[in-house]
Write a structure and sequence with these properties.
This protein has helices at about 5-10, 20-35, 40-55, 65-95, 105-115, 120, 125-135, 140-150, 155-170, 180-185. It has about 180 residues and is mainly alpha-helical. The chain folds into two domains: about 1-100, Rna Polymerase Sigma Factor, Chain: A; about 105-185, Winged helix-like DNA-binding domain superfamily/Winged helix DNA-binding domain (Arc Repressor Mutant, subunit A).
């Protein structure tokens, strides 16, 4: 897929020219958003929003950078916005929620899910999750992540090492857990 050709076609008004981009990157973006958000529906919505934003801002894409890295940045920023909204909502919710509320089946399942592997990722900040996911799941080098975050490579390496230590200390609390095999850090 030649991204330069796709951009040219989209600028000329061919809406269907963006379709190969959607098919090529949708699954990778979904995995990234899912690991950041921890919710399938929110991740699906985030991918759609990120692809729409990418389409609308295609004129801002610089040909000399990785297109996938550009998409990850758009998706990551959108996920961070959603996480911030969720945090604000969760802070307000107890003020309005009745104490006698019985949890629904969906809430019970959600609580159960929070006690598994995802707890490792949830113990990280949003930026830490982005770094670990981009490196271990998406396969980006730390140097590529540094470029994507507009940081120095040494800064990203130090942050990555801190994240690894944090994950190691958290995973030792789990009897029989082996996070390194699970997350390939």
């Amino acid at each position: 897929m030649n991204i330069e050709e796709i951009i040219r076609q989209v600028k000329q008004g061919d809406c269907n020219a963006f379709e190969p981009v959607i098919h090529a990157y949708q699954q990778k973006l979904f995995a990234y958003c899912f690991y950041l958000l921890g919710n399938r529906q929110e991740a699906e919505d985030a991918v759609q929003e990120a692809l729409i934003k990418a389409y609308q801002n295609l004129h801002l894409y610089q040909i000399n950078q990785s297109f996938l890295a550009w998409l990850y940045k758009i998706a990551g920023n959108h996920c961070l916005t959603l996480l911030n909204r969720r945090k604000k909502w969760n802070a307000l919710l107890p003020k309005f929620w009745r104490q006698t509320h019985e949890p629904s089946a969906e809430e019970a399942v959600s609580k159960q899910v929070e006690h598994n592997f995802d707890d490792l990722l949830r113990g990280l900040t949003a930026e830490e999750r982005q770094i670990i996911i981009l490196h271990t799941i998406a396969g980006y080098t730390l140097d590529e992540i540094a470029v994507n975050f507009e940081l120095k490579a040494g800064t990203v390496r130090k942050r990555f090492e801190r994240i690894r230590k944090k994950l190691r200390s958290t995973s030792t609390d789990w009897e029989g857990s082996n996070y390194e095999q699970t997350i390939r850090v």
